[in-house]
Amino acid sequence: MPRPTPKLTAEDVETATAGVKNKIGPTGRPLPDLPDILPPTRRGPAQVIAMCNQKGGVGKTTTTINLGAAIAETGRKVLLIDFDPQGSASIGLGVQPHDLDISVYNLLMQRDIRHDEVIRPTRVENLDLLPANIDLSAAEVQLVQEVAREYTLQRVLEPIIPLYDVILIDCAPSLGLLTVNALTASNGIVVPLECEFFALRGLAMLTDTIGKVQDRLNPKLEIVGILGTMFDGRTTHAREVLDRVVQAFDERVFHTVIRRTVKFPETTVVGEPITTYAPSSSAASQYRELAKEVLARCPAG
């Protein structure tokens, strides 16, 4: 008796149709034919995008660093704001948080501090960093006493927005006051989502918070997209989670999916993005494709 034909996965189809126009991507949908990104004709005003997920370990900081670097490759001026007291994005770009004399905390809480005193260039051309350290955790408590506390980051960013094309905010893994500040100051939000069940459960809570911010604080806030991260197409579980996200959010899910690779931990050690550490790797290509999608959805950036 012949064996039944095994069911093809999205990854199988993607491999089989390599080079074919409108091939099926890992999300099970035809991949869009995105045009090449043209260099910008002017500088600013920046699109401000919060990278947000209250669950930790979903690839949020990795995505912020590498998406920022990929966008910077297009000639756009990018500012990465480390808005997590752990300072992970700062470490990932070669800055040691405990060595900082001044950080985003000082810019938030001290009116006599100028942004050009805190912002620093990185090793990546066109990519600047507003670093953070553990001092930022005190801001969560101190901001409670402030008038219009949800708008503090927005006030700080007003003179910075004309200087950049894209500003990416790496949020802390929580839905506290710092994250609300980031959402209030942003035009859009990207949600990195690990292709795992517990990460999927927290998505409903996050979308509820986004809805409240839209209603009460920032009606211009929009979800730019949901990004599948740490995807392993060999496992049924990862494919099922990604399928459920696509069913629930449809076109809000990016076609690009970031796959698991051993190179991401290596980039953290050397303090640079994957696009410069391993520029010809598949992971670097994935972030360049993500940059195309993000810029296509935020054309003003």
Automatic annotation (TrEMBL):
Query: What sequence ranges are listed for the domain AAA?
Result: 47-223
Q: Name one Pfam family in it.
A: AAA_31
Region annotation (Disordered) ranges: 1-40
Query: Which regions are flagged for Low complexity bias?
Result: 30-40
Q: Which PANTHER family match?
A: COBYRINIC ACID AC-DIAMIDE SYNTHASE, P-LOOP CONTAINING NUCLEOSIDE TRIPHOSPHATE HYDROLASE
Q: What is the protein named?
A: ParA family protein
Q: Which organism is it from?
A: Kribbella deserti
